[in-house]
Structure formats: structure tokens, C-alpha cells
Amino acid sequence: MSVPNVIVHRDADMLAKAAAARVITRTVDAQSGKGSASLVLTGGTIGIATLAEIAANPARDAIDWRNLDIWWGDERFLPSGHPERNETGARKALLDHVDVDPDRVHVMRGPDSGMTAEESAEAYAEELRKAARPEDHGPAPSFDVMMLGMGPDSHVASLFPGMPALYETRPVVAVHGAPKPPPTRISLTLPVIQASREVWLIAAGEEKAGAVRLALSDSGPVQVPAAGARGRQRTLFLLDRAAASKIPSSLSRPSSP
Prior knowledge:
Layout: E1 4-9, H1 12-34, E2 37-41, H2 44-56, E3 68-72, E4 74-76, H3 86-93, H4 117-131, E5 145-148, E6 172-175, E7 185-188, H5 190-195, E8 198-203, H6 209-215, E9 234-240, E10 252-254
Parallel strand pairs: 1-9, 1-10, 2-3, 2-5, 5-8, 8-9
Antiparallel strand pairs: 4-7, 6-7
Helix pairs in contact: 1-2, 2-3
């Protein structure tokens, strides 16, 4: 796994703009190299703000949207179109504004599909298996970029501290009894996260500062899930000043005045 690189932006607005520019550049680079790209989206305030900034950036047209696979790191097990679903926020902020191929937007299904949470998780795992190539060496694609938010408790995706999902080797699991509502969710697991080429943890706000400090420490992923969120080739912590306020200055690199 790669060693994290910490980049600090002035505030949450600048963070969202800068993260959006990074997504565009990295996606274009990946498509230039192999014709297509894969991107894992996250929800939350800063995650959705980043997607909105991609939509607002004129450079978004450099992306070949028809040759981009869109995935999610986790989803709340709620009906399609529910305002608390990550998919709903992503469509409103970005996907409804670009020419994506609907067949390459891989959503985690909710209860309106007739599936249980466990069946939804297995269906998503099957989609990952079908998309994986021999060079990925696993049951899921090696995503070009996986974007992850981080909770004040250090959870990433829907992997909460101390919960059984952190021990899973399956690529996707149903999570029950999550401490943050709604209690039932679908989540990628740490092995899939760690197989991604790049993992970007995006966090803003002073309430995230403690979790960021722990995630950059020697803590184990069962106690601090964000500490286990590392990419094979690159790991970025993209933070605003408030979220970076409790880490040593030697770990961070400012990117704006």
C-alpha cells in the first residue's frame, strides 16, 4: 500500500474545487492511457460538493463520459430516488448534467428492487466480478480513483469502527446496525479499497480533525477504518485547514494561500 500524501486547502469551497480539478485531470490521463477509466464516488457534504464542482468546471468536457465507469463505495439501503441515497445526490450534482452511459453507472440497489440488503450486496459483487480484468488480480476492478469521505468517528464508506464488516474478505457486504442512520447499508470492503490504484480521502471541517489525525497515525483499521484506506499506487488526504488542524505540520503540504 502507498504512503499517504496530505494536501491542505484554504477552506471547504477551495477543497471541493481543487478535488474536482484533480478528478478531471486523473480521469483524462487514465482514458488517454487505456481508453476508459473507473471512478468510485462518495457522498456527504464535501463529496457532493466536489461532484457539483466537476459539473461546473468547463474542463469537464475533456472527459469521455461515455467511456467512464461510475461506481459507489457505499450506499444507504433506501429506495431509488430517496434524498438520502448517495446515488440521488450524485445524479443531481453531476450525472444528470453529463453524457454518461447508463449501463456504466453501477448503482447499489435498494429495497424497491425486491432484494434484501444481503442480496443487493451480492448483486453488486457480481457486477464487480464481471468488470474485473485478469490484470486486476482480484474480484473487483483496480479503480483508477476511489473517492472516500471520512466521518468524525473515522469511518469510511459504511465501514464503522469495530464492526464485523472490517474483517470481511468479500468485496461487498450488507451493514446492519450502523451507528449513523440509516442503520442498513451496502459497502465495499477494505480489500477492494486497498486494490484501487488511487484512494483519495476528502475531509473538511474541524469535527473531522481528530479522525484525520488518527487515520495518519499507526492506528489499526478495525479501530480507525480510515487508517486502512490506502491505494496501491497513491493515497491522498485532501483536506481543508480545519480538518488538518490536528496533524503535525510536517505531514501536510499547503496548496493555496
